[in-house]
Amino acid sequence: MDNKVRTPIIWFGIFMALMLFQTSYMRLGTVTALVTLMLAIFTAFSSGGVSFKLFYLPRESKILILFLTFTLFSTLFSGSFPSYILRYIAQILLCIVLLAMYSLEKPEENFLRFVFTVSTVIYALLTIWSCYQLGTTRYYHDSIVLFNTKLDPNFIGIPFVSASVLILDNILEGKKRLINLVCYVILTIAIVYTASRGNMLSLLISNILVLSVYLQKNKVSIVTKIIWVMLIVVAVVYLSKYLASNYTLQWERMTVFGEENDNGRIELWNRAFNAWRQSPVLGKGLGAMTRIYGKASHNTYIQLLSETGVIGFMLFSMFSMRLLAKTFRVNKTYFCILTGCLLQIMFLDAIDNRCLWVILCWLSSMPEQREWDYYEV
């Protein structure tokens, strides 16, 4: 097997590394992301990895093509395109093209796993530093600044939680435990600073799934499993008490609902359902919730219903379910990542978000055959 990483995968790795580089200075965040994204697509064709004559379309690609086509038609019918439309199109096209290159080779998957983990830990360190500079209020939900740009903590939590799954898997498997333990603590602290219930819930569920997979794979006795469960319960209880007493405002944000503290998602969801009932088949077009109400729906699935109708919602659900089934067969660690990711987007509108599509593109390109021994970070 060739140990080289193909050029399109290298460019995709760079795009992955830039997922949270979203500086507003001269729009460099957007420009660099789009340039690397387009270079990944261009080199896939120019290097011979993808042929126009023999363009391979697995079922996932066909679903994505239908999804992209329908959502664009729905948005065109609404008469207004959102500002993110080019980014949205390019990210889905990248996913389709990577799937057309067949599956990732082992060195390429090791390369992407390494790039994703290292870049995410760096972003987590920058997040902690950004929060630390603010002083002692310990309420940073609206003030996390990376590269001179304020970022939504809900979005940056997507790679943080996904990387925590990879690192916890390394710890459980005994791979460079000390460095991985340090990285895990860094990511956990960064997630706490996001003050996002979606991030914390996804962290808890995806990490418990990783532990469950490990215990099942290694055929651990029922007594050991019970001990692990008891340890998790104790850890969750004490962590909750610690956060509630030392990070009061963040804890309130993660646990208290209501319009007054900017957690009025139920009202936003009701508005989105009202919009969907007005156009149940086509939806109101991408970006409609922000255009009509001035606020997003804060739930990607409800966003899809209101903006792309039942058809768009079903197509995205079909793609997600197929990807869940694939990762469950191929590598259950990645199944845990995807599960956490799909849970997180219940709390934010992420259909155009690069962090979401980085993970979807990556996992879509996984081979079908077998599990590998991955790079040890």
Write the topology of this structure.
Blueprint: H1 7-17, H2 28-46, H3 59-78, H4 85-100, H5 106-132, E1 145-146, E2 149-150, H6 153-172, H7 177-194, H8 197-217, H9 222-246, H10 248-255, H11 265-278, H12 288-293, H13 300-330, H14 332-344, H15 354-364
Antiparallel strand pairs: 1-2
Gross geometry: globular
Helix content: 55-70%
* N→C terminal distance: 23 Å
- Radius of gyration computed on alpha carbons: 21 Å
Number of strands: 2
Written as H for each helix and E for each strand, in order along the chain, the element string is HHHHHEEHHHHHHHHHH
Contiguous helical run count: 15
Mean pLDDT reading: 85
User: How many structural units, i.e. domains?
Assistant: 1
Largest sheet: 2 strands, antiparallel
Q: Going across the major beta sheet, what is the strand order? A: 1-2
